[in-house]
Amino acid sequence: MLVGEATRVSGDERKGIASAYGAGGSYMSCEYQMMSPRQGAGTCVFSNGARYKVHIGT
User: Fold this and answer.
1) Are 42 and 23 in contact (CB under 8 A)?
2) φ/ψ of residue 40, rounded to 5
3) pLDDT digits (tens, 9 = 90+) for 2-40
4) What is residue 56's predicted lDDT score, i.e. its pLDDT?
5) What is the pTM of this model?
6) Three-state secondary structure readout of 15-44
7) How far is it, in rounded angstroms, from Cα 32 to Cα 9?
8) Measured at the alpha carbon of residue 22, what is the angle toward residues 21 and 23, in degrees to the nearest 5?
9) Half-sphere exposure of residue 52: CA atoms within 13 angstroms, side-chain side
10) pLDDT tops 90 at residue 58
């Protein structure tokens, strides 16, 4: 399990970054852009090199 937080980028409330860390030194880093207050999309990169596209919202 990874635990972390997300925040909006200063000066551009549609863009954000997120990061999370887990046991054993695993981590992920994400960049995303909100298309509306409840929906967005972005990309996350994990410490093992895996890269995922993510969707936020429904």
Assistant:
1) no
2) -165, -175
3) 999 999 999 998 999 999 999 999 999 999 999 999 999
4) 93
5) 0.84
6) EEEEEEEEHHHCEEEEEEEEEECCEEEEEE
7) 10
8) 140
9) 11
10) no
Please count the other Cβ atoms lying within 10 Å of the Cβ belonging to residue 21.
13
CB 48 within 8 A of CB 39: no
**Rounded Cα–Cα distance for residues 38 and 49 (Å):** 28
Q: In this structure, are residues 39 and 58 in contact, taking their beta carbons and an 8 Å threshold?
A: yes
Q: How far, in Å, are 1, 16, 19, 27, 37 from residue 24 at the CA level?
A: 11, 26, 16, 9, 35
Can you give the residue ranges of every domain in the chain? 2-56
Q: Which helix (H) or strand (E) holds 2?
A: strand 2-9
Give, rounded to a whole angstrom, the gap between the first and last alpha carbons of the chain. Answer: 23
Compare 58 and 56 and report the one with higher pLDDT.
Answer: 56
